[in-house]
Amino acid sequence: MPLASSIAKLNLEDDALTPGAQRSWWLREALHTEPGAECPPLQKNLNADVLIIGGGFTGLWTAHYLSSANPNLGIVVLEQDICGGGPSGRNGGFASGWWDELDSLVALYGPEGAVRACRAISQSISSIGEFCSSNGIDAWYRKAGYLYAATAPQHLQVCAGMVDTAREVGAPEEMSPLSAGDVRARCDSPAFRGGAFMRDGASVHPARLARGLRRVLLERGVTIHEGTRVERLGYGPPATAVTATGEVRAGQAVIAVNAWATGWPALSRRLVAWSSYIVLTAPAPELLDAIHWTGGELVSDLRTSVRYFRTTRDGRIAFGGGGGRAGTSIGESFTRDMRAVVEAAEGFRLLFPTFADIPIVDAWGGPIDVSPTHLPAVGSLRPNVHYALGYTGNGVAPSNLAGRVLADLVTGTDSDEVRLPMVNSPSRTFPPQPLRTLGAAVVRRAIIAKDTAEEQGRRPNALANAIARMPRRLGYMLGP
To answer: How many CB atoms lie within 10 A of CB 86?
Structure first.
């Protein structure tokens, strides 16, 4: 169907028609509520104890834990846009556990290491809520758990596997099986065939959280320069960040740039960038009541190209899905992709037919950093240069944990966090260019085609099926 016909059929209006022309609805709402003090671009040379490149969740949490431990530490954060201007201000706001990732975690780190990692993420979910409460940040934090909804017969096997694995590692309370009736009692869609429930899950307003973190750090005396792009980082020591209008020298440096790490030579082969998009409805609280979705649960389906959705405080549904863009060069194709908006809207209309008359009024998207393991990695490139990356679209809670780890790496603290198995763990890398970009794009489209066919009860195209499964056959923990 031509794009224009799809747009009309899907009842898209207003800012949903111009993705990328404005910031995410989350960030616009947060800036309207509390614009915050100015953080002008760097205009001179500075010396600091710690330099943090990136003003998203990872960088801000790192600064938070460092400044909490030592208020006298000189910390400078350099952000090319504004704090929260990247994935931290446009994600779905899913602060969720890792119990659904147990199969990969056990394969990588063994049962004991996998459980340690999951427990650490659980602590991060609670820590986010405690931070908001103690600092007066109304980030809409609501811990209501995570609902996995099967929309194809194959997904029921996935749900059963998640429940079985949690039981096998000694954590049966973390994942519970749900019948179709159980799922639809919490969120009623005719497409839901059954599922599973993970108790580790909290929704947040991501941009309010990012901007709240920014405010707290400024109150503590952390220096933040927005609109400041780092052109080059010399490891030193001291580490030296070179910008167009000044330099920052520091004994320790943290690289926290998410998908933009594809442009950093030392990190580029550790990830690829994929796109993810969200569409947002007009408020319809009465229809949420009608489908019983009033408990605040996070929900996603079990497609490999996962679709994720949650409610907002004013009765909207934010519905996200993976777009088809993939590669390493991040440009407007990642943020102005109307095809990705249409695909997300089609998913929403399929799962929630009772909302047919409710318009979709906003849409936004951009790159996420996808790792070979589907899980983030934290570590050190040099004794004085540290990094975190590879959240693969699930970074709200893991970035809090990464901030704790990075703070301990910077200070040389021997803690339980730095001894977690994903810290300085060896990982596979992606192929060199141009195979990395071409392969990522082809695999991404094949996965979407396979998922769509299965959901519609069709046999997937043999070639698409083979391409979608290729990453696993090559040793990557991506794809079906």
So the answer is: 26
Distance CA 177, CA 195 (A): 6
Instruction: Determine the distance from the C-alpha atom of residue 142 to the mean position of all C-alpha atoms in its chain, rounded to a whole number.
Output: 18
Residue 261 has phi, psi (to 5 degrees) of -65, -15
Rounded Cα distance between 469 and 152, Å, is 18
Over the range 339-365, which residues count as b (16 or more CB within 10 Å of their CB) and which as e? Answer: ebbbbbbbbbbbbbeebeebebbbbbb
Q: What is the CA radius of gyration of the chain?
A: 21
Q: ∠ at Cα 208 (202, 210), nearest 5°? A: 90
pTM: 0.95
Beta-sheet strands, E only, within 256-384: 272-281, 298-301, 307-311, 317-327, 360-370, 377-382
Q: How many CA atoms lie within 13 A of 403 on its CB side?
A: 29
| Six-digit token string for 302 | 């079990």
Per-residue pLDDT tens digits for 169-191: 999 999 999 999 999 999 999 99
- CB neighbour list of residue 406: distance below 8 Å, 6 or more residues apart: 58, 62, 65, 254, 256, 378, 386, 388
Distance CA 250, CA 241 (A): 9
- Find the helix or strand (DSSP H, E) in which 389 lies: strand 385-389
Q: Write down the residue that tokens 């980030």 correspond to.
A: 139
Span 407-413, mean pLDDT? Answer: 98
* CA–CA distances in Å: residue 215 to residues 29, 33, 366, 413: 16, 13, 25, 26
CA 182 centroid distance within chain: 27
HEC sequence for 192-247:
CCCEEEECCEEECCHHHHHHHHHHHHHHHCCEEECCCCEEEEECCCCEEEEECCEE
Q: Where do the domains of the chain lie?
A: 34-143+200-259+375-430, 435-473
Q: Hey, what amino acid is at 198?
A: M
Class of domain 34-143+200-259+375-430: alpha beta
* Cβ atoms < 10 Å from Cβ of 426: 7
Query: How far, rounded to the nearest angstrom, does the alpha carbon of residue 359 sit from its chain's CA centroid?
Result: 26
Residues near 435 by beta carbon (within 8 Å), at least 6 away in sequence: none
* Distance between CA atoms of residues 418 and 406, nearest Å: 8
Interval 182-233: pLDDT, tens: 999 999 999 999 999 999 999 999 999 999 999 999 999 999 999 999 999 9
